[in-house]
Amino acid sequence: MDITAALSRHPDEPFSLEPVTLDAPREDEVLVRMVASGVCHTDLHYRSRLPPAGGPYVLGHEGAGIVEETGSGVIGIRPGERVVLSYRHCGACAHCRAGRIAYCVRYGELNAPGSRPDGTYTLHRDGGGPVAGTFFGQSSFATHVLASADNTVVVDRTPTSCPPLRWAAGCRRGRARRSTCCARSGVRASSCTGQVPWAAPR
């Protein structure tokens, strides 16, 4: 499907809103329409360190939205539900089985920006060129994302018609500006001013 994403091409250049193509969800994937996304120091850190030759990249790892479609193997997540997106974990290693999913032995493989674990990309540019996505299993700086069942958390099972993320939504001292939805997270979130302009209003 055609979506809009905030592409990062170089550490010294601003994010660029561009049309890209997002794959249809695979068996274990969840298509989510973004309603809000945090802008974390982690995103900016990765943006400053990632090699331009490996991009462009779509970052963002604190997404929240509405499920639009699920793969045939996804259980317990339904279209229309509100969800927040977390980081991925394998669920099979000793740490995951003990409930310490932050120490998953495949954490880096599953959450670094780039491709799926099998080497395929979820995002593509016009002409077929790949876009490095799946950042923390989501790349939430976009109008829609593909997440996985293991990092999608249902927070309200009541179907909703919440509007999409507005242009230039920001948080400052707990108030949302120019937006109906705004996500805050991290240290000193009450004074964050993250700009999240990549989803146009309907």
Explain what the structure shows.
The chain has 202 residues and is mainly beta. It has a single domain, classed as Medium-chain alcohol dehydrogenases, catalytic domain (Quinone Oxidoreductase, Chain A, domain 1), CATH 3.90.180. Helices cover 9% and strands 28% of the residues. It has a five-stranded antiparallel sheet with strand order 4-1-2-7-8, with no helix packed on it. Strand 7 and strand 8 form a beta hairpin. The longest helix has 9 residues.
Please give the largest β-sheet: 5 strands, antiparallel
CATH topology: Quinone Oxidoreductase, Chain A, domain 1
Topology pattern, helix = H, strand = E: EEEHEEEHHEEEEEE
CATH class: Alpha Beta
Describe the strand arrangement of the main beta sheet, using strand numbers: 4-1-2-7-8
Rg, Cα atoms, Å: 16 Å
User: How confident overall, as mean pLDDT?
Assistant: 81
Per DSSP, what share of the residues sits in E-state strands of 2 or more residues? 25-35%
Question: By CATH's scheme, which homologous superfamily applies?
Answer: Medium-chain alcohol dehydrogenases, catalytic domain
Task: Map the helices and strands.
Layout: E1 2-8, E2 16-22, E3 29-37, H1 41-49, E4 57-58, E5 63-70, E6 82-85, H2 94-97, H3 107-111, E7 123-124, E8 130-131, E9 144-148, E10 152-156, E11 170-172, E12 175-177
Antiparallel strand pairs: 1-2, 1-4, 2-7, 3-5, 3-9, 5-6, 6-10, 7-8, 11-12
InterPro entries: ADH-like_N, ADH_Zn_CS, GroES-like_sf
Pfam families: ADH_N
Domain Alcohol dehydrogenase-like N-terminal: 27-151
